[in-house]
Request: fold
Amino acid sequence: MASLCRRFPNNPLMTPEDLKPSRPDFVLTGVLNAGAFEFDGQYCWLVRVAEAPIQTQPGKLVVPYMEVDAAGRAEMCFRTFDRNDPTLDLRDTRLVFYKDALDKPWITNISHLRMARSDDGLNWRIDDSVQLWPRNKYEAYGIEDPRIVQIDGEYLVTYSAISRHGVTSNLLVTRDFKSFDYRGQLFVPDNKDICIFPEKVNGRYVALHRPSVSMLGRPDIWIAYSDDLVHWGGHEAIMYCRPGQWDSGRIGCGPAPVKTEKGWLEIYHGSDDRNYYLGAVLLDLDDPRKVIARSETPILMPEEPYELEGFFANVVFANGQIAHDDGRIWIYDGGADRVMAGCETTVAELFKHLGV
Reply:
């Protein structure tokens, strides 16, 4: 089973070796999961940059987090663990589980967002400066995986905020990517993989989101509606994990859906608890709660070395794309939670894949 999407010939497009850490005592662990958009005559990414402290203490593990005071001033802080502590669980490279459920997991790295630019969508230049830092207690462990859509001249940036309180879905609004209007948390923890549709449907904003569950249910895709981008309701589960298939373990939305004559075309990710894949789904134009067609097989699967080996192996994960007027879609994906890559497909190919 081969991937439907054609990978760009110069993949990976960006690696941690292509940029500098935010401070000299940090090492970069990943540049990944960029939100993609067009701005000021260029293709742009708002890209997640993950970094961690350089480990200098034998037998110890140092993890970072931010402390934010009442005035909004953020300071980098650190916690040190003893690797020989029998109550320490380090099986997941991303997380530190310590003692028991009363001590929330810690994150081994911390992420911020930077701007990258390209004239052709293939060759990218990234800023050394940080575009967006964690700004409050709900972002103390970092900000991740932005998704960007333009509506009425404004760019809406949704992203995951990580902290001891869980994962919240936050919103920033900007016109120039210099100043940002912070609109707060859209959904309570744990919820992530938020994409807002590129236009209102029946006069209301629409978003896909993915609540996480700890006891009953599965990580499925839900829909929600809003009149003001802050208060959301009308929540319904519209897509479910499918036992025995490539998306049996978890699913989540990708970039904002593309409006087509046959429906809203959405790229989403799925996992079978071994690999992360990309698929497609077609939602009804007037009632996007209705699923018209959905991938029976992935459109992109981890096959290349930069997708099979990295910070978290066997992953392709996308929350950025450029949809061209001629039907081409450039999908930008994070490979193995370490690098940025890209691939191309078309609306017509995805329709054929979906059987519509």
Observations:
- Residues 195 and 335 are 20 Å apart (CA to CA).
- The longest strand covers residues 26-39.
- The chain has a mean pLDDT of 94.
- Helices lie at 305-308, 347-354.
